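Progress note, project year one: complex with zinc ion.
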Amino acid sequence: MPQTIIQDGTVVSLDPDIGTLEGADVLIEDGEIVEIGGDLADANAEPIDASGKIVFPGLVDSHIHLAQTQVRGIAGDWSLMNEYFDHMLGNITGLYRPEDMYLGGLFGAFEKLHTGTTTALDWSYPNTLEHGERAVDALQDAGIRAVYTYGPPGDDAAKWWFESDVGLPEENIRELHEEAIRDDDLLSLALGLRGPDFCTDETARADLELARDLDALSTIHMGAALWPSSVYGEDYQGFGAIEDMLGPDVNVAHGNHFAQEDIDHAVEQGVSFSSTPEVEMQMGHGIPVTGKVLEAGGRPAWGVDVCSNVSGDMGSQMRIGMQLQRMFDNQAVLEGDEEVTEVSIAARDTLEMATIEGARALGLDDEIGTLTPGKRADVVVLDASDFMTAPSHSPIETIVFQSDPSHIDTVLVDGEPVKRDGELTNDLVESEFDRFVESGHRLVDEAGIEL
Ligand SMILES: [Zn+2]
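Model obtained:
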């Protein structure tokens, strides 16, 4: 059995029973973490030197549309309700060919791996079954752990969004699941639901029932704008038609406009929330749901959302999401005419939201999210000894505040090195690069986007 040993690092396990260990080793066998501790020397294991480095669990991006990677940098000045709906959902996604899904997914996954994210929920909008097949090929070829999320096709916004009464394409979903996802240990299936904000009550319920029938996670964009009242002339509806169907297999992306009592109820039912703070702050989704989920006794997971807009690096999201919440909490204290004498959430919290909370949101917390014997070996090794990161007095703060992707030396997914000595190991990074760039130029040109 192939063995690897990560040696002599500062191991931030995030497992409460193991804690943080100095000068420790992580022994990996056949993709599984088998032991963590001092002096685990094993002559048969391939060594990875981690002296002067921090070893921590791979990050989890709980909400991203990877196929937008080749249209990077077009949405930086966009709002959700105007340009994003018009240009992205109403135009560009309809122009995607299967190869564009492949190339966007592939390089989106490379960006993830390069920046220490080993698992992503890829919210996909395949125009045909073949588009879905190529999107899944990309995840497999990149070697990332992923929850492939089959959402509505991206070629007809009027049909699939805005009071849609058309259910998700069940036959395609079942076929793709059986042919490519079910038997792949690194992949699982989710359904990208439009939910009550975007489709009729019957359709919202039927999509969720289909996901349950497939034993798949349901992930839904909800509460990210005012439209349930402003567009349809209805009052705030909370979870509306799916209120009595909530459970741990339901994940809400954004959720900004939910009332506290609805968040309380949802957290009690085990619903997870994915907040994508940077995009939400820009595009007008509203205040991120972080504070309300914490108030309800839960914790959100972080996500990037759209790499057409922001970097795919999860480090930015865990820092921005935390600092924004601290700002709101500090401001509430100041408005009570008190000085701020402590911060509300800790660096450890945001790192956990980017790891174990993400894993929990995706139903993968038994497999990943902490460095724990018995879990799969999704591991990041970060250089804490260069002029930007040393001296590292607090490894968690080095990870959260001081490091950038250039410090990520080694990344393992399921025990396999996908990045070594600061470089991705996959040959496709070079061989597919020109096609990736061409795909982006074609999409932006054909869409007629003026930048
Ligand atoms: Zn999204």
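The pocket of zinc ion is lined by residues 63, 65, 123, 221, 253, 305 (CB under 6 Å).
The radius of gyration is 21 Å.
No further modelling is planned for this target in the current period.
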